[in-house]
Amino acid sequence: MSYRSLINLRKSSLNIKQSSRIMIEDYLIQGGQGNMSSSTIIPKPSYYKGPKYEQLHYKTVGNLIDEAAEKYPNREAIMSVHQNRKVTFSKLKHEVDELAAGLLEIGMKPGDRLCLMGSNSIEWEITLLASIKAGLIAVNINPLYKKNELHHSLSKVDAKMLIALENNQNQDYYGLLKSIVPEISQQPYGKPVITRHLPNLEFIVLDTEKNLPGIIKYWDVCQSGSKKSISYLKKLNQEMSPNAICNIQFTSGTTGAPKGACLTHYNIVNNSYFFCKRLKLMEKEHRILLQVPFFHTFGTVVGILVSLNSGSTLVLPALGYKPIESAKAVLYERCTFLYGTPTMYIDLINASKTLMDQGHTFTTPEIALCSGALCSPSLLKQVKMTFNIKRIVSIYGMTEASPIAFLSNSNESEHKSLTTVGQVLDHTEVKVVDKNGLTVPMGVPGEVWFKGYNVMPGYWNDEEMTKKAITEDGWLRSGDILILSEDGYGMVTGRIKDIIIRGGENIQPQSIEYFLESHPEIIQAQVFGIPDERLGEVVCAAIKITNESNLDDETVKNYCNGNIARFKVPKYVLIMEDFPKTTTGKIQKIKLREIMQDHLRNMKNLQ
């Protein structure tokens, strides 16, 4: 499909008449004060309420664990390829209860914050679920955090315990902890720690066989539960409120220090359930390729909790991110449902070619879901062709929305899946507003806001940022620009902060990125603005090209000339091997701007 055909398809999918659109825009330019004739069609406001075919569930994560063990006792809950180990739902419940009782036995109390640090493993899932079932608040910590980031996270939530799972890899968590809490090297093994640097921190747990000063062994905690703590655990789960905070997710922090988004049982149990319900995952036993990290809200909710709700098996291909291992897992573990970000899918396609060259074909994948960033239609088509996918699933949301707000329907047309982020999820309200917070007409772009059960209560210990994120009447501001159609489908066109203002013209980078990616030799494109004395900003592009390509900056510009508006043609083009990313895999445009500006300064100095 050509770029122009794709754009026409995107427009038609939103069912907006151009004549009405012009009248709407004229009306808005006048600030909503213009005289509109009686014959003028005033469209509906850009608002949609998700369906309510089924009531919300008032239950806890602990209830989900117990129900999954009862419904699917002998089915695999998780298969960790890199550990060569699998665990059934029945065994998962047993190990979760064992660790939960151990946590209570050594002195953890409901409401205490337990920080969990580590890469994807069976122990990570067990620890998360055990801490939540024990009434604690599990705080997901990025395993790549360094000294300052880890100290900030532990301090921000007043953590009482840190569990770091090294998984016999190269992470020296003990060395990292000594740099933050130097006193631990002088304290006894197997006992609570006392530190002035983090006065609330009492327990540091590592999955090590060594008797390290100031450290408690992970396996000792697992085996420390008593009849008393087991009995207390049962009582806790009978009395636990679904409205209690059970998880804190740190946002990526690309615009400042990470904020701790608080999520309740009610938030994440229902969000994961209605994901499963809409995609009909309960109707068939699925094996999910989970490349995304557990510590991210997607891995926690759309990974672990979706597995509990649907009886699906999570397949962990590797401890870290290794595309070739992911491709092998799809093949040898017979995965039916693929999860990934755009970057992961690009890498997975390339890795899969190695296996296909050896004569292998992919026959089991049925569904592919792209998350974490906007995925171009051209990439989604490549995914579909490479893995013989029957259905592409679009999804959109944010950590603070638990995380899903939009999701594909199981029976929607292919062009809906390729051109939108799905339809508003059940029991969720959505509206699109202008810069003053006023609802725009249907089909007009603006900032998308969410309201409903899935909106977080707030950021941990940060009332100021919570007020900035959530309005007094409960609407969560997203910072994303979206066009909403009358049937509840949305099309995200970018981030408000990414808009390029060139000579007074507002330019959305996404449309230029999609055009550039329509070139057969361009794998991925990122478009952004840099300061310019005359125009305010100018358009720049960073691109990744195929190994065989001879593209340079001038040929890329020539490709744009005559095909897109002149003011959208990038003034500067930089060809890169890879893009800078956050630890959750999101491309950092702020760093791309810095790289481009450094490149231009260096070029100027050489002249």
From TrEMBL:
PANTHER family: ACYL-COA SYNTHETASE, MEDIUM-CHAIN ACYL-COA LIGASE ACSF2, MITOCHONDRIAL
Family recorded in the similarity comment: Belongs to the ATP-dependent AMP-binding enzyme family.
Keywords, comma-separated and alphabetical: Ligase
Domain AMP-binding enzyme C-terminal: 512-586
Name of the protein in its database record: Medium-chain acyl-CoA ligase ACSF2, mitochondrial
Matching Pfam families: AMP-binding, AMP-binding_C
Cited function: Acyl-CoA synthases catalyze the initial reaction in fatty acid metabolism, by forming a thioester with CoA. Has some preference toward medium-chain substrates. Plays a role in adipocyte differentiation.
MF annotations from Gene Ontology: medium-chain fatty acid-CoA ligase activity
All residue ranges annotated as the AMP-dependent synthetase/ligase domain in the record: 66-460
Enzyme Commission number(s): 6.2.1.2
Reaction(s) this enzyme catalyzes, per UniProt: octanoate + ATP + CoA = octanoyl-CoA + AMP + diphosphate; a medium-chain fatty acid + ATP + CoA = a medium-chain fatty acyl-CoA + AMP + diphosphate
Gene Ontology process terms (BP): fatty acid metabolic process
InterPro entries reported for this sequence: AMP-bd_C, AMP-bd_C_sf, AMP-binding_CS, AMP-dep_synth/lig_dom, ANL_N_sf
